[in-house]
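Collaborator request, handled under Task 6.
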Amino acid sequence: MKSKVDSLSGTKRERTRDQLLVSAQSLLMHEGAGALGLRQITTHAGMVHASFYNYYPDVAALLGDLGELLGATHAAAMAMPSEGDEDAAWRFTRITRQTLRIVVEQADFGRMMFDIGLPSDRLATELRLRLKMDIEEGVAHGLFVWHSICIGVS
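Structure tokens returned to the collaborator:
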């Protein structure tokens, strides 16, 4: 069940750190949060457990990086243009649907997001920000009238 990231570019240090992130993600998705001990992560990554501390002070720091990585990956995926994205309402609908689909259709991934501490309000905040930007764009183009955008996205 070992995952390799040898094909990735970067220094050996960067590749090893990436391997730790991949291992933690894989363990979370396939075995749950209970499998996230230091020894389990390093064994899965194919390294000696003591070398973990060359990259992270503890498992919580590794999970913090994993959470940031997942959040950035999600934001990048939602920023990719799609057919119909010129319509602000359509764009918001697509982003919301894709975000919620993660939890429904990919239960392991959705569970992993919560296991590593990505709170649902963080996702809601991202969605509200995107909605606000889409409403502002729609108002600027005269597509619709909105008296209080802040109330609309609250």
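The cover message to the collaborator said: "The chain is about 65% helix and 0% strand. The chain has two domains: 1-66, 81-154. Please let us know whether this matches your experimental observations."
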